[in-house]
Amino acid sequence: MTKSLQVDVAIVGGGPSGSTLGTLLKKYDPNLQVAIIEKEKFPRDHVGESLLPAVTTILAEMGVWDKVEAANFPIKLGATYRWGSTDDHWNLSFIGESDFTETERPGKFESQRTKTAFQVDRSQYDEILLEHAREAGCLVCMESEVRDVKGANGLINHLVVREKGGNEFELKAKYTVDASGEAGVLRRALQIPIESPTALRNIAFWDYWQHAEWPERFSGVATRIQIMSLGWGWLWFIPITDTRTSVGLVLPAQYYKKTGQRPLELYLEAIQSEPHISSLLQSATREENFSTTKDWNFLSRQLCGENWFLVGDSCGFADPILSAGLTLAQTSARKVAYSILELFRGQLPPDWIKKEYNEGHRIQILHHMRFADFWYAGNGCFSDLKEFCTTLAADVGLNLKADDAFAWLSTGGFALDRPGFAGAVGFPLSGLQLVAEHLTGGEVLSALEGCNCVTANLAGATQAPYAIYENGRIIQAASYVRGDVTLPRIALFELLLSAAVKPVHVDQWLAACYHFGKHIGSEMGNFANYTQAAEALVREGWLTPSYNPSMPRATTFAKQA
After folding, report:
1. What is the pTM of this model?
2. Which CATH fold topology does 3-74+113-194+299-354 show?
3. What residue ranges do the domains of the chain occupy?
4. Nearest 5 degrees, angle CA 353-CA 52-CA 206?
5. What are the pLDDT digits (tens) for 21-34?
């Protein structure tokens, strides 16, 4: 007779999303019984090695940041690009070179390290996270495969799991989570439709190299990943240990088919054709662990149901140009952990909890897809793919002028990526402006340039609860909703709006808010956050700018000669 195991939460997949979910569930409710079912045996290689700073905050919350830091992975300061209308290399940085000071390893998650990220060897990183989940109290079953998903009418009854030796058992859970990545074990079993809201159809080839040169070394421990555009694709170069580097090629599937070449042949040809990357690999040795995959963008139409959730790549996949894979995976896992914890507590409306996750995370994935579309459509180096880029731009309604492109890629996203601060897809507003200018060759003008007054504009807005995920609880914060745009009434946004009920001079308004806010917290005391939040509020229509000739000119947003 098949044995049966009953748990509170069953997680299919032991990668970063599964281990993040399991760890946070056990952290905030140690009494929960959590099982993680992983098909493979760790360690094992996996593509997707570049993190964004949002992940390190989650690692700290999990209590695993110190373990990841002890692995001595390269510290990531940002990325160097050759992309767009120029052949020059340009940097998009999380922290300025001059702001990053010499640091001893292992370090602590404080000061400058809260603004940086890691470039990780996934064979080590994933194992560290999964073992940490085990230490937190999760039951971890490696080399165990979900052979069947039993259920009906959108409900999961139990899983049939086959262990390495061939034995099978039934796994029953109050909530079951699909963290199986692209395999989408639950998503496929439940027949959840997927959509592809982009024209991108890329494939990727990659291998690992030993003893490549680092492009740059800051304090001997930090560097930037390299993204180099070709005339028909692009290369990534990511140091993941002191001696090991991930090097990959991304190109449209249509172009690959047209060449008639074998993947490895095309991969090596691409490396040889790119002077910067080939020079870094001049003395390196390829591991000959060559791999290929399609990275077609897709998005699940439904991310949760009555007793199940999707996390990570089972929800959807956005092109790797933004290094967003692990960020989306671990961010979604954190939100689902909080959602399940609240469902067990029974203090918040279940439908609202699920709606916030389903709609909120779908928006995040869509924003990353939109940003990726912009990167490709704005790349003048794709000389052989002009038709592809033209079609892509038309499909997404993109006007490749700096101001228009910037407004388009950030629409509805300024306030949601990190509630209370201005940014989208993991980048602050200033970073989005830099990208728009580099990819269009134009200039993004301040939304407040030439104005000296602002007034709050809440016409047509309604109020609704908004989910803030904090310290193991979901907080129902107030928000304004107008059309498809949501504005959480917290932090800088609430402060700036409440101080502009009547027309107020821009400089006086920002100064008053800044002096009030800097006593609340370190981030509220950063003046750049105020100017970027003001820009976001104007661009999303929550503030109306104007010019009053009886008042002095504003200096904060005046164009610099």
Report:
1. 0.94
2. FAD/NAD(P)-binding domain (3.50.50)
3. 3-74+113-194+299-354, 359-440, 453-546
4. 115
5. 999 999 999 999 99
